[in-house]
Amino acid sequence: MKTVVTRFAPSPTGYLHIGGARTALFNWLYARATGGKMLLRIEDTDRVRSTDAAIAAIIDGLKWLELDWDGETVFQFARAARHAEAAYEMLERGAAFRCYVTAEELEARRSQAEAAKQALAAAREAKAPGADIARLEADMREKTAPFRSPYRDGGKPPAPDAPFVVRLKAPRDGATVIDDKVQGPVTFQHKDMDDMVLLRSDGTPTYMLAVVVDDHDMGVTHIIRGDDHLTNAGRQTLIYDALGWTAPAFAHLPLIHGPDGAKLSKRHGALGVEAYRAMGFLPPAMRNYLARLGWAHGDDEIMSTEQMTAWFGFEGMGRSPARLDLAKLENLNGHYIRNTPDDELARQLIAALPHLPGGDALAAKIDEPAATLLARAMPGLKERAKTLMELADGAHFLFAKRPLALDDKAAALLTPDARAHLAALADRYAPLNPWDAATVEAETRRYVEAAGLKLGAVAQPLRAALTGRTTSPGVFDVLAVLGRDEAVARIRDQAALASA
RNA sequence: GCCCCGUUCGUCUAGUGGUUAGGACGCCAGAUUUUCAAUUUGGUAACAGGGGUUCAAUUCCCCUACGGGGUGCCA
Predict the structure, then answer these.
(1) How long is the CA A386 to C1' B28 vector, in angstroms?
(2) What is the pLDDT of residue A500?
(3) Where on strand B do bases come within 7 A of a protein Cβ?
(4) What is the pLDDT of residue A420?
């Protein structure tokens, strides 16, 4: 059994979007599951739209997701000469031909076809009395038929220096069947396929040719890519045949749609993975979520990377497009956050700060002791956060400077009564020893009982004074984490304002 | 227009020629509770429609509808 070789082949015309990331993930999973390799190829043959920034963004995105690839990254443009060589080989074999029809002529033909189409549609609409419809239909069928070169078989010889394009001499009869690993057998009738361009008039290869030659030369055994390439699989198979090569296995994954079911657009989710990073999602959570989008292993929802690679197979793939559900991603991410050890999570949060909006301000405050403080506060913080962004937000109070600025709701809690309680509590806390959550809680409960209050009556003002907000981890944990001096000082800050 | 692909709760999905059609997210209600979460108990909710095949179809076949992709000297 030949070793599996998959590849991820993005075109660097933008960031690595979420659909691309999923395609990369499945290629990676399949390679890992079978003990094979995943290769990376940058399809940069479109010189106008390809940019170095996009290449960097794609590689950066893959690295963030921890999807590694084997061997050197292949740049398609650099292999143009090899692609042309293959085209000439086909020419020699009689599997391709020179076509002298210009792009302008083709354009004219297309607009003719468009006109014929509209004429037919108009006639149908008007329900024009009989007869003409059949003729119009025939006319349209003729004009919209797949392109066939008029010069193909002994047409008028062109000028010796006339520019030409190399086209595949596609078969007229029969059909090509690809046995897709996901979609099952798919049949393409040859009469519906055209003589596709292999080499442009400037001698550069088209995508269709380049992909086939590269996949062959790179030894790719499994092409795993988006559903949008399904028809290309048929066309590419024709090229493999023309070259006398065996086509690899194909697996076409259903696409990801936006939450509204329409195609993923910039507006809702066709964001680069960088955007998900900026929202504070963890790579393992992303992988888990993306894997479950279109693939399932029974009822399993939370899967480690090890489990995914152990279980992955095309049998578990769905065939219909999946919608992106941010709520589920967040839920999953929350799970991963809660299950990350405290110090590890603190480290990850600090590392992620430069990528989070406004994270730099917090990053500036994090020094060595601050990192320790963050780790100690983690148990209370992490179960309240679905993303690193929320985690950073929740950690804000740890590093806030006295006197704290309270938000409106917190400020409203500090009634004169509440401030009096704060003053009394500060006095009780000051000599407390040891300073830990249990001791502070016991002391607080004694005070509450003596005063005949409910715990909430002092817990909420305490929270406001300590964190500046109405929600936070448990107050006693907050007190403990902050340390006696800082906690008492914060409480006195707010108590003092009463008399001021 | 033509070609190709698809359709199970709102969403992601499991599943089978005979099931109370299962799980997860979301939502609703209860428990817990110093806030918010977390946790936990329960609830809501689906086989697109129509024809076949069959003793029996959500499951197999056909048609329709809807959605998606392709139809480039883009990738």
Answers:
(1) 22
(2) 47
(3) 1-8, 10-15, 22-26, 33-39, 67-75
(4) 94
